[in-house]
Please model this.
Amino acid sequence: MTVTRRPLTRDDLAPLAHAIGHTLKDVARLRGGTKKGVYRLAFEDGSTAVAYVWSPEEDFWDAGPGDPRDPFSPASGLGLFTAAADRLAAVGVRAPRLLYADPTHTHLPADTAIVEDLPGGTLEDLLDGDPAAAPEALERMAALLDTLHACTGPRFGKVAVVDNGGSSYGGSCEELVVTRALSDLDELPDRDPRAAAAHPQLADAVRTLAARVRPRTDPPALIHGELGGDHVLVTPDGDLALIDIEGLMYFDAEWEHVFLRQRFGRHYDALRTEHLDDDRLRLYRLAMHLSLVAGPLRLLDVGDFHDPEFMRGIAEHSLQQALCLAERT
Model:
């Protein structure tokens, strides 16, 4: 069933602005988010802030609440956000500063937060539009990753779970990745005939790569989880700040690096690091591509995502990559 989604208006968001002592002049919904609404709030005094709204009407996945003990469950909600913001602040990695949170739905019938507005665009914009500034920005990004991944947790899982003494499902990071990859793969035959024909080969490739991964005793690293240049803001002073942080978790750094390689493309060499497990990288790369086929096609099932061709392009590219990896396994 297609959901009719109405962007929030100035009248809707005015009480939220008033909660931090401002009169709302204008509001604009920012594009890019699929799990929450992101709105720039312009106030009468000329200042701005950004509002996050976690509600079913703003969630294009229509996934509903996820089980936080599953590291790969939907990373959406105020609790995940505040836990991630606290952990990043503690390790010295910047994110937009939290100005106000409303878990009691006082001003809107949803979890909401207001964070500082960091103008300046994303790292992805900078890398595409300002080649002269790219080397310094990538150097800063590499330093940010070093700081992030140097922080480890006692167990793998979402920060909101682990930092509160909880534990996650599954026996290891690689076990969870394999389970998820096979689940994603099982969704595909009904959506793409090529995936249906290649299902046995792809499943064999997942299991073959998994069998090569040796158990790990090192503690899991703090990772963003879906770290592309579009999830990094560049502040006016050149500093970097992470956004869409709800998926922050303790996990294998290799999972982060397969995303970094995919999303940063030719710029990834500046972010590459030693001491990564090649067998994990191969397994996680195939699993990531299967996820990036199943996820976009699942999203399109809802029927009202604003850029369906973009999502179809991601799915098509990822399927081709997965098939190539399976052939080489």
